[in-house]
Design goal:
Rossmann fold; 19 strands; 557 residues; Arc Repressor Mutant, subunit A; alpha/beta; seven-stranded parallel sheet; 37% helix
Length: 557
């Protein structure tokens, strides 16, 4: 490894943290390189590149190194071209195969500087199965954008299939690797099941070893060509030795807008594909981290196109209102007044950004935990009241009563998913339904993968009729077809509602429509007449077969 390549590895190592000593840098480099790189050589490169690396001494006089210009904007490294186009690739519908010439064009860096650049022999990339027209269009747009970009697709439309095709095309390139980043170990296990079921040899590729990084597993690209990694595991280590035409897929890519998880966005991956139902966050993470790395949204398919193309099931939406008990209303109004007063002090300070909301909440968390901050008191008051008000809405007694009233509607449906914000709300709903003789089960984040699979299998085979989850099923996890969705509580986020809707509108084998019931507390942000709900309600009205609003005095059914 020459000094320039070593400097690139050091740069990418320091992008993972604010600062690091030479021993820490060496440990990270050893994870991706088989070359024997000693501390003295790392030290030499650090000292000879003051424009890139800066040294500072800690109280114990140890040397800590950081990037001199600590961006690292996470765009493509200088002088590294985009990955090669695969000429002749058939992106049409069907199971046809098309010969492609793969390999590095002369001058393109390889993942190992000692491996000479050379064109491989012709290989055949075969379609796994027929693709929807939108999937082909999305892949074409991604390739045209230089193998970078975000694909937004409503839940249930099949965005995973787009990523699998991108992975196969990448692995057809000599010495290219692929990494899939996911937010949870459950989603990693789901991806592993999909990717290990592919017969790569039948596609004209050599055998592909698939590994997991996270949840106790420590696969690396030194002995795998394809890794599924949790975002948490990837943000603290290097994955790729040198820049090259390898692919990084960010599933639920909106999660990578968090500052900590954004450290997983290694610029050595020239090919980058983000997947999400809606590229939205309540902070600046999309503009600060996701777009600078992945690029723009190259393709989007929403409810209108998915319904028109017969990809998802038609659906009906029923909003069902409840009133707060007197004691609940008093607590809610008190929390609202506390938030109002605290917000007035926060806004008057001019220190905390009040828009977007997520950025304000992050700033308040910082002030609340900072000793001596003039805003510590208002910040703590606002955060406590916000949490209390949210809890009141999530666990409102009237919602549990409404669930009991809906028992016969749920019994008559095939399968039902209950979406909740808290464990207590989910348990309360299941208790009501169980008393009515309906078979129920909880799915939560503490369950082992095998246990979750068993519950979902029982749900699929109708041994269980209702499953409930406190946010666990909001995104990512594949769940069996359901006829009815019941949303007990949720945020005002459009993204969350669209994701939950997508869990229920997966296409039914007999073409029947889905139904989504949304419980809401009247006169609060949950109310469909609230300004907080305006955009979401307008979108639902435009695409639902019907939308009904029942008030607390109305009977359900």
């Amino acid at each position: 490894m020459n000094d320039r390549d070593l400097a690139d590895l050091i740069t990418r190592s320091l992008m993972q943290t604010n600062s690091m000593d030479i021993a820490g840098i060496a440990r990270m480099i050893r994870e991706v390189s088989a070359d024997a790189i000693d501390a003295s050589r790392i030290s030499k490169v650090l000292y000879l590149n003051p424009s890139k690396f800066s040294r500072s001494a800690t109280l114990d006089r140890s040397s800590q190194w950081r990037l001199t210009n600590a961006d690292p904007t996470r765009t493509r490294p200088a002088n590294v071209p985009a990955g090669p186009q695969l000429p002749g690739l058939d992106v049409g519908r069907g199971l046809t195969a098309s010969p492609v010439t793969v390999g590095h064009p002369t001058g393109t860096p390889t993942l190992d500087s000692e491996i000479p650049n050379q064109l491989s022999t012709h290989r055949v990339v075969t379609k796994l199965d027929a693709m929807y027209a939108w999937q082909e269009e999305a892949l074409t747009a991604w390739r045209s954008a230089g193998y970078q970009g975000v694909v937004e697709a409503v839940t249930g439309a099949g965005k995973t299939r787009v990523a699998i095709q991108a992975i196969i095309e990448t692995l057809a390139v000599e010495d290219a690797y692929a990494v899939v980043l996911v937010p949870t170990t459950a989603l990693a296990a789901q991806w592993e099941k999909r990717l290990t079921s592919i017969d790569y040899c039948a596609l004209g590729l050599p055998p592909v070893k698939v590994g997991i990084l996270g949840g106790g597993s420590k696969a690396t690209l030194r002995d795998h060509r394809l890794i599924i990694s949790t975002m948490q595991s990837a943000c603290s280590r290097l994955l790729l030795r040198q820049p090259g035409p390898s692919l990084l897929v960010g599933d639920e890519v909106h999660r990578l807008g968090a500052p900590t998880w954004a450290k997983a966005l290694d610029p050595a991956f020239e090919r980058r594909l983000g997947l999400t139902a809606t590229l939205e966050r309540e902070d600046e993470g999309v503009d600060e981290h996701i777009r600078p790395y992945f690029g723009a949204t190259v393709f989007s398919i929403g409810l209108a196109r998915a319904l028109a193309d017969d990809i998802v099931a038609p659906f009906h939406v029923i909003f069902v209102g409840v009133e707060l008990l007197l004691a609940e209303r008093q607590m809610y109004d008190k929390a609202t007044e506390t938030m109002r007063k605290a917000f007035a002090a926060i806004r008057a300070s001019g220190v905390v950004p009040t828009d977007p909301f997520g950025s304000m909440m992050q700033a308040l968390q910082t002030h609340a935990q900072t000793h001596g901050s003039s805003l510590a008191g208002p910040a703590r008051a606002y955060l406590r009241a916000f949490t209390e008000r949210k809890s009141i809405l999530a666990d409102a007694a009237g919602k549990s009563k409404r669930v009991g009233e809906m028992a016969e509607i749920i019994r008559a449906s095939g399968r039902t998913i209950v979406f909740a914000e808290t464990v207590s709300a989910a348990k309360s709903a299941l208790t009501k339904l169980k008393k009515s003789g309906i078979s129920v089960a909880m799915v939560n984040g503490e369950m082992e993968y095998e246990e979750r699979c068993k519950v979902l299998a029982d749900f699929e085979h109708r041994r269980i009729q209702v499953i409930a989850a406190p946010r666990v099923l909001d995104e990512g996890i594949d769940i069996p077809e359901a006829d009815l969705g019941l949303i007990i509580a949720g945020s005002a986020s459009r993204r969350q509602l669209i994701q939950r809707l997508g869990r229920v509108i997966r296409k039914k084998s007999d073409g029947r429509a889905a139904r989504i019931y949304v419980l809401f507390v009247e006169g609060t942000r949950e109310d469909p007449e609230s300004s907080a709900r305006e955009d979401t309600v307008t979108e639902l009205q435009a695409h639902a077969e019907s939308m009904t609003v029942l008030r607390s005095c109305d009977r359900v059914g």
